[in-house]
Amino acid sequence: MPTTDLWTFALACYARPGVESACLELQAQGADVCLLLCGAWLEVRGSASDPVRLGQLRAIATPWQQHLQSLRQLRQQWRAAAQQDAALHRLREQLKSLELQGERVLLERLERCSDTWPTSAQQAHWLEALLPVDSESSRAALAVLRDAARRTQLELRGA
Hints:
Mean pLDDT: 92
Keywords: Coiled coil
Protein name: TIGR02444 family protein
Pfam family, one: DUF2390
Oligomer: single chain
Organism: Stutzerimonas degradans
Structural class: mainly alpha
Coiled coil: 81-108
């Protein structure tokens, strides 16, 4: 059966219970959510993690995340004021849409980089390698993401 593309996988996985809060917690600790979703996708596909591949993904993601962070910060700055100003609320929603479009472009680029990497039945360990801080809370959040990724892959494959 063909492999699910990263964007479809990311949307379905992120929509699972607990994943959004787990990803936001990891983001607050310095993690890149797009890289984490890509890592989860690579894990369920069985693509082996190695420092060279990790470096390739980070080289793609880092400049994009700097741009996306600017949009995210502005959107967050407008949160309170947008509740009182309809025009600002519409602009904030447009920022949110641009941020999501940027994340989609980033995920598509990460997929193009990694889609041809060989897969195997061996356990791949991407998520720990993408974790900026190893703590009890980050490991718990990764467990939520990893479980959701496995369930998402099974669901998308029709199992």
